[in-house]
Structures are given as structure tokens and as C-alpha cells.
Amino acid sequence: MLTVLLLIVLICGSTGGEIAITRGSKKTGEPARLRPKAVLRFLGQAICNGWFWLGIPLMAASFFALLILFSWHPLSFVIPISALSYVVGALGAKYILKEEVNTARWAGVVLVCAGVALVAFG
Amino acid sequence: MASEKRLRVKTLIMVLAMVVCAVVGDLLLKRGMSKAGAVQFTVTGLEHALMTMMTSVTIWLGICFLLGFMATQMTVMSWADYSYVMPAGAFGYALQTFLAVVVLHEAVSIRRWIGVALICVGVVLVGQTKPRTTEAAARVAEKAALSC
To answer: What's the complex ipTM?
Structure first.
């Protein structure tokens, strides 16, 4: 039961956190150049965004769930199930971030999800 | 057309940096937590686990790489779609397998090779789509370019 709960925290925490941070990064706007100074300025502005601070606790919860799951179960159990986060993430991108997830992208996401599960089982 | 190509190239560079940081970070964390032993879900057990995590150099190194992963991920997602970056980042699993064969000379099962092939096809499929589909991000990027 605790394992199921931790897997839910792992998947929903990482996906929810990444979606919140994506929204924050987009609101900040991309760095003008890919130079260290410009990227550091961008990161400084992005962490002042409220979305970032919504994402961090979600990702921290997911991180601790991952550490505990790693200590209880082999990688070949944890990673295939966590691969579901690709599908949950694509749903979040479509309905929360309003991204255009077309058929090719959906097919790619499903293949990646199946591939990750197979690699971890292998 | 040139800006579309530039967008693809810079997205690819950042995704590669993101993948390297994630792969190294995960390996270090797994090694650190394996040394610490199974975490007991009691107050004493959690206290012990927290102390082990705080004092392990391997875990701190892993955290540093994961911070690098987060910085590159935040940067790339300021212009690219989440649904583009997230599956493209799965290329790390394929990279891990190639490294296991080339560097560690490990035997890799057929099932794992099929998984790597599926990931590569999936990443190529996602790579064919536009890295940015939201108008809001494009508008902010145009504004930033104009203000330079």
C-alpha cells in the first residue's frame, strides 16, 4: 500500500512540478543568448516566479519518494512504473499548458513510455 | 526558416546537456542510496536515512548534477514545449545502455535492445514535431529578441 502511495507521489509530484516550472519559465521568457551570464540572469528571474515555488515542493516530494523506492525495490521495478509519467506529462501539457500534442507526438510519447519500461525490465 | 533551424539546434544542445546531467545524477544517487541500505519507515529509520543522505559525498555529487539538470531543463522549457522536451529527455535511457556496452562491456539482453530501439524511434517521432507550439512563448521570445 505504501509502495502504491509513493509511486503516485513520484509520478504526480514530478509531472505536476515540471508543469508548474515550465509555466514559470515561459512566463519569465527565454534568455536572449545562450551565454552563462544571460542564462544565470534568466534563472535568477525564473526562481522569483510563484510557479517555480509551487513546482519545487512537488518535485521535492517526488524526489524523496524516489529515494525511498530505490532503497526498497530494484531499479527494474521503480523505473518502468515511473515511465507512466511520460503519458501523464503529455496529458498535462495538452490540458494545462495548452500545447499542441499531435498524433506524431502522442505516438512518440507512447513508444518512449514502452521503451523505458522494457529497458528497465531488461 | 533560419530561426526554425536555430530553434531546433539550440533545443537539441540543451536537451543533450540535460540528459548527461540526469544520467550521471541518477547513477550517483542510486550508488549513494544502495550504500545507505533499505530505509525503514519509522521516525528513527527516517532520521537515520536523512543523516546518511546529508553526510554522503556521493549523494551530494548526485544532487549537484541534478541541479545542473534542473537549470538546463528550466532554460530549455522557457522556449520549447514540455511535451517535446520530456520524451526527448528519455534518450538518456538509450545512452545508459550504450555506455554499459561500450564502457563497462556489459551483456545487454534482446529485450533491453528492443526498449532502446523503441525509445529512439519515439524520440525521432517527437523530434519531427515543432519544438514550440504555444503562441505565448513565441510572443515572449520575439519581445526578448527585439529588446536586444
So the answer is: 0.87
